[in-house]
Amino acid sequence: MTRRPAAALLGAAVAAGAARGAYQLLRRYPPGGAARWARTNHRGEAVTLLEGPAVAAGAVLAAAAGLALPARARAGLAAAAIGAGAFGGYDDLAGSGGRRGFRGHLGALAHGELTTGAVKLAGIGATGLATSALLGDGPADLVLNTGLIAASANLINLFDLRPGRAIKVAAAASTLLAAAPARSAPRPAAGPPSAAELAAVPLGAALGLLGEDLAERAMLGDAGANALGAVLGTAAAASLPRAARIGLLAGIAGLTAASEVVSFTRVIERTPPLRWLDLLGRRPPAAPAARPAAAPAGGTRATGPAVTPAEPGTRTSAPPP
Predict the structure, then answer these.
(1) Interval 168-178: pLDDT, tens
(2) Model confidence at 301, in pLDDT bands (50, 70, 90)?
(3) Does residue 39 lie in a domain region?
(4) Cα angle: 229, vertex 230, 233; to 5 degrees
(5) 282 part of a folded domain
(6) Domain limits for position 264
(7) For residue 270, how many other CB atoms are within 10 A of its CB?
(8) 187 lies in a domain?
(9) How many domains in the chain?
(10) What confidence tens digit (pLDDT) does each residue in 259-298 have?
(11) What DSSP string describes 125-142?
């Protein structure tokens, strides 16, 4: 599965440790103050968005430390995490959440409204282009890899609607990528980058803060989810054969298009194996508030089953004004 399993494991451990360390540092010295990063989740409890920048920082540090990887691959991974994390963080802090999805942001743009989401989409596209250029492939691969990196960044963000979900998806994708056959390289002496070593960066950065996410003390936000997706896309771009990358991009594009009309959450909740995985490690649902039952005709009092309110479609409230 991998040429250098020890190096891949070490890379994952470095990414996890770097993400944890960055998170602790950011919690102690939050840029702009802790309130700037605070949100309220569906339970009415406070969570912090600092997990996102910490995950992006962990990926950058792990990429820089991955000395077994080619310099171009290390630069690409770092650029993807920095660019996608920065534009995602901008949307986290400046966005209102009033517009969602490609249709919402492009529709607003058509009416002359430039949303923070539209700025983020353009910025992540530019990040994909810059990252693809750093990987050093030809013109055809430049276009393909740009689309793959940007689309991956957006897709992981679409799953960040419940605690731990986006991280689980990123971890599963990283594991599958590590097992994928490597592409043939135009530089046989150096050989292609190891898929497992590349996938170890997003895998470790994600798992390093999974506990905080599942416990609902923190969340990835756009900064973390976009960074994870972009790094995953970069790892795929640098390691997979062209045919596999074309198929992967087509699949991501299909899922993204489907998300405009189908709720991923509803699909997961209606599919028992996916629902089990989604709930694995999460806190139990909040108990609904007791509601008095109306007395039926005949003067007797009866109570019916409690009705559990549906969770909202997003994990947190809009940012404070």
Answers:
(1) 999 999 999 98
(2) very low
(3) yes
(4) 85
(5) no
(6) 5-277
(7) 10
(8) yes
(9) 1
(10) 989 999 999 999 999 999 999 999 887 665 555 555 444 4
(11) HHHHHHHHHHHT--HHHH
